[in-house]
UniProtKB/TrEMBL annotation:
Gene3D superfamilies: BT2081, beta-jelly-roll domain. The keyword Signal applies. Keywords: Signal. The lineage of its organism: Bacteria, Pseudomonadati, Bacteroidota, Cytophagia, Cytophagales. It comes from Hymenobacter properus. It comes from the Bacteria. This is T9SS type A sorting domain-containing protein. The keyword Cytoplasm does not apply. Residues 1-19 form the signal peptide.
């Protein structure tokens, strides 16, 4: 179980609008009832950890779909009568190395802005179970794996009908990635609850992030202070690129809930204030739709 949690954590920390193909992202192809093509499951992770096949039944095909004919149902179940273990989907067919050298993954060279999926969620303790979706883009350089971008989203509220979840990608560099890793699970906490069920469909990478060195330099000029903020006020500044401050702004919390939206601002201001007063303490993502592309920053409210 400890290694399983490490596998989850690695994906959490480090993936002109059009959808980019995730192999079998519509979850229409299932060679067996418990394995979607191009995806691995909790069973595969456990086999990598303990060395023998282990069937949990935590991931299965369902006709309760958003589109097409099928979707995937991920359910947290009891293992050996005691421990609870989440259902999961891991993109890629490569081996899941317990030494954390390989977590599936697929070749990929794009710069998407976000991972999107449709989901339903139910269960007795969703806020503590922390169902999630995570994406990481990496590249191999000088014999090492480098994280190019990553993003994650905790799903904490029930959703009886299919709901859109958006996971913004935070870029660490402008380098071209060579691989993408996606993981979705019905729970990620250390104390899971049996019965949490996450149904997912239509998994895709969307949008386009910054693509040139000039654009990356422009994005790097955007700063946020104070961060963390104790009073809920954050100041955006971009001395080298003040036009960035004119961009429309949205802010989401870790569940993907939209908490703030602001239209384009008038030119000429040296700074711009984002107010999260009245919001609970936590981590938020501010998104600016600039002429250079999507720019995101993390905001921490104390």
């Amino acid at each position: 179980m400890k290694r399983f949690c490490i596998l989850l954590a690695l994906l959490i920390v480090g993936a002109r609008s059009h959808a980019q193909t995730v192999p079998n992202g519509n979850l229409e192809t299932w060679p067996t009832a418990n394995h979607a093509q191009n995806w691995q499951t909790t069973d595969d992770i456990l086999q990598a950890v303990i060395g023998i096949p282990f069937a949990t039944g935590t991931t299965s095909k369902t006709t309760d779909k958003y589109a097409g004919s099928f979707a995937a149902r991920l359910e947290t179940k009891s293992m050996l009568g005691s421990s609870a273990i989440p259902g999961s989907l891991v993109l890629g067919t490569g081996p899941l190395n317990p030494a954390l050298d390989n977590l599936g993954g697929m070749p990929y060279t794009g710069h998407p802005a976000a991972l999107q999926l449709r989901y339903k969620l139910s269960g007795p303790a969703l806020a503590t179970d922390s169902a999630f979706a995570g994406v990481t883009l990496t590249r191999r350089a000088n014999g090492r794996t480098e994280v190019v971008a990553s993003g994650f989203l905790f799903l904490l509220q029930p959703a009886a009908a299919y709901t859109l979840a958006t996971v913004p990608l935070q870029y660490a560099s402008n380098a071209a990635p060579d691989s993408v890793y996606i993981m979705i699970a019905s729970g990620s906490s250390s104390n899971l609850t049996v019965g949490t069920a996450l149904t997912v469909d239509n998994i895709e990478l969307t949008g386009s992030a910054l693509a040139s060195r000039a654009e990356t330099a422009a994005a790097a000029s955007l700063s946020v202070f104070p961060n963390p903020s104790a009073d809920g006020l954050f100041t955006l500044a971009a001395p080298q690129e003040p036009a960035l401050l004119q961009a429309p702004v949205t802010v989401h919390d870790l569940t993907g809930r939209l908490v703030l939206t602001a239209p384009a601002a008038a030119p000429g201001a040296a700074s711009r204030t984002i107010s999260l007063r009245g919001q609970p303490a936590g981590v938020y993502t501010v998104r600016l739709e600039t002429p250079h592309g999507l720019i995101t920053r993390r905001l921490t409210l104390q």
